[in-house]
Design goal:
The longest helix has 15 residues, at about 120-130. The strands form three sheets. The protein has a six-stranded antiparallel barrel with strand order 9-10-11-14-13-12. The two termini are about 30 Å apart. It is about 25% helix and about 35% strand. It has helices at about 1-5, 15-25, 105-115, 120-130, 135-140, 230-245, and strands at about 25-30, 35-40, 45-50, 55-60, 65-70, 75-80, 95, 100-105, 150-160, 165-175, 175-180, 190-200, 200-215, 220-225. With about 250 residues, the chain is of the alpha+beta class. The chain is built from six helices and 14 strands.
Length: about 250
C-alpha cells in the first residue's frame, strides 16, 4: 500500500511515517463496471484513489450531452472538490467504466491528516485550484475566513520598499494570502501593499504584493495579487522556511 501511495503526486514527498498514517485510514473497495460512486449534488464524504480500473467523472445538464470531465486510471484520484468546505456538495458525478478497485479515505480522516501536515494541505489546495481552474479568492474565502490558512505564529520581519523594517508576527499563510499581526494603523481594508517578508537575518523569504481584505485590531489579512495567488511552488518554499523557524 505504501509503495502505491508513494506514486501518487500528492503524496510523493511524504516520509514513511506519514505514508503509514494514510495507509492506516485507507479502505479498499471493489466495484463492478458502471457502478455510480457518487452523484452530482451528493454530500462530500470521502476522497478516492484509483488502485486499478477506470473511473469517469462527468456532469449531466438537462437538455445537453453528458460532459465528461475526466477519465482516471491507476494512480488517479477524484472527489477532492469540497472536502475542505463543510457545506459543499459534489459538483460532478463519478462512475466506474470497468471493474475497478478504489481506495477510499473518509473526509474526517483526511482533514485530520492535513491538519497535521501543513505542506500536504497546501499541496492539496494547490491541486484543487489547478485541476478545477478556480479563482483562488473564491476557493479559499479570503475575505475574513482565517480557518482556510495554515497557522504559524512566527516572529517575522517586514521590509518596505524604502528599506524600513518592522517586527511583526506571521499568523498564517495560504495559497491565497497571509495573515500578519503588528502592522501600522494606516493599513486598512482595501489598501494595496507591497513588501518583503522574512526572518531576522533572512528578510527576503517571500515578496508580498496584494490587498488588505480584513482587519481586526492590529491583525490583517492580505490577499495575494494574481502573480502570486495559487503559486504552490513559491508558497511551499516559504512555508518550509517559516515552519523551520517555529520549531
Amino acid at each position: 500500500m505504501k509503495d502505491f501511495l508513494r506514486k501518487i503526486s500528492l503524496f510523493v514527498d511524504l516520509d514513511d511515517a506519514q505514508l503509514d498514517r494514510i495507509a492506516g485510514v485507507v479502505k479498499e473497495e471493489q466495484h463492478p463496471a458502471y457502478k455510480l460512486i457518487f452523484r452530482e449534488g451528493d454530500g462530500v464524504d470521502a476522497f478516492y484513489l484509483v488502485r486499478s480500473g477506470v473511473v469517469t467523472v462527468f456532469r449531466d445538464v438537462q437538455g445537453k450531452p453528458q460532459q465528461v470531465l475526466a477519465r482516471l486510471e491507476e494512480g488517479g484520484f477524484f472527489g477532492e472538490m469540497g472536502l475542505l468546505n463543510d457545506k459543499a456538495r459534489r459538483y460532478a458525478s463519478a462512475r466506474t467504466a470497468t471493474p475497478t478497485t478504489l481506495l477510499r479515505i473518509e473526509k474526517a480522516d483526511l482533514i485530520q491528516i492535513l491538519a497535521g501536515n501543513p505542506g500536504l494541505e497546501l499541496k492539496f489546495r494547490a491541486e484543487v485550484i489547478r485541476r478545477h481552474g478556480m479563482n483562488v479568492s473564491a476557493l479559499l474565502g479570503l475575505a475574513g475566513q482565517r480557518d482556510v490558512r495554515i497557522r504559524l505564529g512566527v516572529d517575522a520581519v517586514l521590509e518596505m520598499e524604502d528599506g524600513a523594517r518592522l517586527s511583526v508576527i506571521l499568523e498564517n499563510l495560504s495559497l491565497g494570502g497571509v495573515g500578519i499581526s503588528g502592522v501600522p494603523d494606516t493599513w486598512r481594508t482595501g489598501r494595496n501593499v507591497l513588501f518583503r517578508l522574512g526572518l531576522a537575518g533572512e528578510p527576503d523569504i517571500l515578496e508580498v504584493r496584494g490587498t488588505v481584505t480584513w482587519r481586526e485590531g492590529d491583525t490583517i489579512g492580505i490577499a495575494f495579487g494574481p502573480e502570486a495567488a495559487g503559486n504552490a511552488v513559491m508558497i511551499q518554499r516559504a512555508l518550509r522556511r517559516f515552519l523551520d523557524a517555529r520549531r
